[in-house]
Design brief:
five-stranded mixed beta sheet; six-stranded mixed beta sheet; globular; alpha/beta; 61% helix
């Protein structure tokens, strides 16, 4: 009962001890309390009760009872870090027990071997246990043994064998009332899904397991460790670090298992390294190494040493000693049969290359490269990275490009299994090294055209396909409705000057729930017309032809190599390359410009105008360099890297008075250019609550567009707005915008019943062909992954929107009104968004407030 209903089992055991139990019954009761404390509470109390259980078993003169308790005590001692004592107790239990009892003790010893990382011994003991448990028809213990064997198989990378055992175990659990073990089976299936490369399924199953554990009131430290691993693979390293650190704190708070603490510290170290925090990774890994060494857990200690070496290398501590240490770890992992062995060999080769030790590097990289042919996607990615480094060391640009192409293809296939746009974007970080290697090689061997192709191969890949539409999940829809209501109530209370801590806590809880459900969405690789075009097929000739069709148009793509901006100027049938300034300096200057625009949004800041204009000139020199003199006079498309998403491009002197649009990628601009407007020509005008001007442009626009659908006051509710936006030709939304840097997909536009968030837009079958967002901060993004952007505009572009006008800075509400009216006048005359925005800026008064307002808005896409 201790696993079927832990609370009830504990109460009954304490009740037995409150009476005058026989030695046999006292032994059982103390054992139950010891198991409860071992798995859900204080290890010190667990050992006390289990030793009492052993002593009462001896008084009962029952060898079988004593053997069973010794098995439980041995597991507890191992978890407490007293490995030798634990294995001694388990050995005595195997000797004392017979038949059925011995099989149960063998299972516990197999479990302890798994905890210690001795997988061969674990498989042998669990094999012996399963044979007897099946003979005596012990369903519960057979299911436990099958689950354990599957878990050991997973540790060794044998996914097929693991799935067979998990399936057999789950069939047995369905015939029992063991709720804790059933939850453990769901958790195990999640681990198997992850090992098979199915991240959404893993997250869904882990969440289901957590719900089951919560009903039993049991801690979830093993689940926390496994979820951290999945979050890291999904590119959510910061979340994994926070989760691991929180679990360590909770475990310390109850005096829990030392073994679990060491594993959590290892998870935290890995997460910190992936989150670009090498110092934290070094500290956590050092603690984990000490604990694992004291627990005599060689498998785990070796993995912790690998993370320590990775973190020290990331911190710039490359040395011959580090190469030797990494090589030793790689050899040990290979001897243990650990799937992480290729990763260690890749690290060894990378450190050796950094020192110029090409012969040593080649030896280790060749070993790592063997993993490129088989295994889960991220293991194959490791192999292709090693192959690319080998080719680079050999001076073969062709070999580098081939390895990078194959590796990025593997990553593309992996990303396409992810339905959530956030996971797709973050997963790109795992291919950043391959992308950089390919760009360097293409610059050396192929010139500007090839550099453009590889820049496109890796740019804004998350936008290359629409995200999977959220399923018709009633729980998700209820959560989003509740979120809107709570957010609206919180906003109303804040406007009244009232504190809203309870509402804010509930809002955060609902955000976590919504995000969790969207991360469960599985991707697809086909849209009814075949496989998605996710990269590697960019046609430079097609781009140049389209630019010629645009009236001597130009496209400027900014690539970044080794920290310096490379300007790829496309037009007039060719691609030219110019070298500009340092990216870091451009980022700093862009922040200065943003600060200047914020000041100019308020009257009385006229004196700041020359300062902002001077910053614009410096920014142009850093971003365009000598290319600024070769832009021609036709329309211009700018394709910046993700880290420059906040640049107000219209402020740059060479771009100020021309037709200018921005796109996340050249491929994205081509798709937008070739998007066909929907039939019907429907216009939608939306006016949200609480605007300083009351959305003054909307009534005038309603008169201009005659039959436009106008949604305002109570009609401007989220579901009604979404219904009208779906498939519209033109939408204009005047509403308060809020950008959420901590959760970009919760960035929102305020409607009558609460926020319209990015997740809502992803429910559209087709977003409006053109959309104008006349409020602040709608063109702000979060830069994630390798070079990806998450935000409102980037959610619209893959969903059928060909052009967006949005704002990247706070603006003066009153100055926005004439800009918007002039913009729509140009659209009514048949101009594109970029042409109409250029003319609208020119029509504004010349004071600082109006000029800053015009600069803050950009046209995205090609409509």
């Amino acid at each position: 009962m201790v696993f079927a209903d832990p609370g009830e089992a504990l109460a009954r055991a304490e009740n037995v001890l409150g009476g005058r139990p026989t030695p046999l019954h006292a032994s059982v009761a103390h054992q139950v309390i010891g198991i409860w404390q071992r798995d859900f509470g204080d290890m010190r109390l667990a050992l006390t009760h289990l030793r009492r259980a052993r002593d009462w078993a001896a008084r009962a003169d029952s060898a079988e009872r004593e053997a069973d308790v010794l098995g439980t005590l041995g597991v507890a001692l191992v978890h407490a870090g007293r490995t030798r004592q634990g294995l001694d107790a388990l050995g005595r239990g195997v000797e004392r027990g017979t038949g059925h009892t011995r099989a149960r003790v063998l299972f516990r010893r197999a479990y302890s071997w798994w905890v210690l990382g001795h997988h061969k011994e674990a498989l042998e003991d669990v094999r012996r246990a399963i044979t007897v448990l099946r003979q005596v028809d012990d369903v519960i213990w057979t299911a436990r043994a099958l689950t354990l064997r599957a878990t050991v198989h997973l540790a060794l990378g044998a996914v097929k064998q693991a799935n067979a055992d998990f399936t057999a175990a789950e069939a047995l659990w369905d015939t029992t009332g063991q709720e804790h073990d059933k939850a453990d089976a769901v958790e195990s299936r999640g681990l198997a899904a992850f090992r098979s490369g199915d991240v959404p399924a893993a997250l869904r199953l882990f969440d289901e397991a957590e719900e089951r554990y919560a009903k039993l009131g049991t801690p979830t430290f093993m689940l926390d460790i496994r979820r951290c691993e999945v979050l890291m693979a999904a590119g959510l390293a910061s979340e994994a670090l926070a989760g691991a650190d929180a679990a360590v704190k909770a475990l310390d708070g109850i005096g829990g298992q030392s073994t679990r603490k060491a594993e959590l510290l290892l998870a935290a170290a890995r997460a910190a390294r992936l989150a670009d925090d090498p110092q934290t990774a070094i500290a956590r890994a050092a603690l984990a190494v000490r604990l694992f060494a004291g627990q005599r857990r060689t498998w785990w200690e070796t993995h912790a040493r690998l993370v320590s070496i990775e973190a020290r290398h990331a911190a710039g501590r490359g040395s011959g000693r580090l190469v030797a240490e990494a090589a030793t770890v790689a050899d040990r992992l290979a001897a243990l049969g650990a799937p992480a062995a290729p990763e260690a060999s890749l690290l060894t080769g990378r450190i050796a290359l950094g020192l110029g030790w090409t012969a040593d590097a080649e030896r280790h990289l060749a070993v790592a490269a063997r993993s490129r042919r088989s295994g889960p996607p991220l293991a194959r990615l490791t192999g292709w990275a090693a192959q690319a480094l080998r080719a680079q060391a050999a001076g073969s640009a062709r070999g580098v490009l081939e390895a990078c192409r194959r590796g990025l293809d593997v990553l593309d296939d992996h990303r396409m299994t992810l339905g959530a746009s956030e996971l797709r974007a973050r997963a790109t970080a795992q291919g950043a090294e391959l992308a950089a290697l390919a760009q360097r090689a293409s610059l050396v061997s192929g010139g500007p055209r090839r550099l453009l192709v590889w820049s496109e191969r890796w740019r804004a890949t998350a936008l290359s396909t629409p995200p999977t539409r959220p399923p018709a999940d009633p729980a998700l829809l209820r959560g989003m409705t509740a979120y809107r209501e709570i957010a609206a109530r919180a906003e109303e209370a804040r406007m009244d000057g009232r504190a809203v801590p309870a509402l804010e806590r509930e809002q955060r809880r609902l955000e976590r729930e919504i995000r969790s459900r969207t991360l469960h969405m599985r991707g697809t690789t086909a849209d009814g017309r075949g496989r998605f075009d996710v990269g590697g097929r960019f046609d430079v000739g097609r781009l140049l032809r389209r630019l010629s069709d645009s009236g001597d148009g130009r496209l400027v793509e900014l690539a970044v190599l080794d920290g310096r901006v490379q300007v790829l100027l496309c037009g007039q049938g060719r691609v030219r390359r110019f070298e500009a300034g340092l990216l870091a300096a451009a980022e700093i200057e862009a922040e200065h410009v943003q600060a200047g625009l914020r000041r100019l949004a308020h009257p009385g800041a006229q004196a700041r105008l020359p300062v902002v204009e001077a910053a614009g000139r410096r920014l142009e020199e850093l971003l365009l360099g000598p290319a600024a003199a070769h832009l021609g006079t036709g329309p211009l498309v700018v394709v910046p890297p993700g880290r420059l998403h906040r640049v107000p491009w219209a402020l740059l002197p060479s771009l100020r008075d021309r037709v200018l649009s921005v796109s996340p990628s050249a491929s994205g601009w081509l798709r937008a250019r070739e998007t066909v407007p929907p039939s019907g020509g429907r216009q939608v005008l939306v006016r949200g609550p609480g605007l300083a001007t009351g959305g003054a442009e909307v009534p005038e626009l309603a008169g201009r567009y005659g039959g436009a659908r106008v949604l305002e006051e109570d009609d401007a509710r989220v579901e009604r707005v979404l219904e009208e936006l779906d498939g519209a030709e033109l939408a204009h939304i005047a509403a308060h915008g809020e950008f959420r840097a901590d959760g970009p997909l919760f960035s929102s536009l305020r409607m009558a019943d609460g926020p319209l968030i990015v997740h809502d837009f992803e429910r559209l079958d087709r977003s409006p062909y053109r959309i104008i967002l006349s409020c602040c901060d709608t063109a702000r993004f979060a830069s994630v992954g390798a070079d990806e952007l998450l935000g409102l505009v980037t959610a619209l572009l893959p969903l059928g929107t060909a052009g967006v006008v949005a704002c990247s800075a706070p603006v003066n509400d009153a100055a926005v009104v004439p800009l918007m009216i002039a913009l729509h006048k140009g659209l009514d005359a048949g101009l594109s968004l970029a042409e109409a925005l250029r003319d609208a800026r020119a029509s504004l008064p010349g004071d600082a407030v109006h000029r800053a307002t015009g600069w803050a808005f950009s046209a995205f896409g090609a409509a």
